[in-house]
Amino acid sequence: MKKNVKLFALMAVLFLSVFTLSACGKSANQSSLQKIKSRGTLIVGMISSNPPYEFHTTENGKDKLRGSDLLLIKKLAKKMHTKYQIKSMDMNGILPALQTGKVDMLVTSLSPTPERKKAATFSKIYYKSTNTLVVRKQDLSKYNKNPKLFNHSTIAVVNSSTQQPMIQKLYPNAHLKMFGTIPDLALAVNNKKADAFSIDLPTTALLLRQNKGLRETNFRHKDASNGAAIAMPKNTTKDLVNLVNKVIDQNKDNYKHWVLQQTKYVQQ
């Protein structure tokens, strides 16, 4: 009797071991898209303080995330038949989060620069804007009359942003100050820690609504980047890349309208 019990226990252990190994092997062999679908949640990293692309508002006393990038994420999750989860972080933390597997992708108006392409797989471009330079109201006239003054000024940009290499190339003698978030740019100029800041036109319009002492200059320049794209881990399988690109193709024109639409929700 005891031998039978031991034999049964041994067989049960072997069965559980085979079942566990089989499950692990199946999980390891899943594609990038299958892993997200199996989990049931698409995990996305974003800056979340970059209006009108992604930003927080207060509605009925509750915090709410809005933005054109969020609308794109909803389209992606719908296509995958999954829920979605947003993980907010600053610009310095988004690529490390992607590389360490904390998020499935980054949807945060990120440009596929050559340096970033070494660390991530990028989708097609879903949006491209034009950049400007913003100064204090009392300095507007002198900078518009003589843009060469920027070459001897302190200019604020978001760290690792597409504006950073653009300004470095156009004004090599300018002193660049790097910041982690968009609102920090306006604070730096308002507090005279910088003479100007560079950002895209939609974001500029929103910042000027909130900062009456600042003015947009005549400066216009498309940076050397291709525009905004979705970043995925370097080893992402083609099924996920293809799905993401298909959603972009279906919503690229919509995205332009979303950017303008979302500006009305940005609170001063």
Automatic annotation (TrEMBL):
It comes from the Bacteria. Residues 41-262 form the Solute-binding protein family 3/N-terminal domain. The keyword Ribosomal protein does not apply. SUPFAM superfamilies: Periplasmic binding protein-like II. SMART domains: PBPb. Gene3D superfamilies: Periplasmic binding protein-like II. This is Polar amino acid ABC transporter amino acid-binding protein.
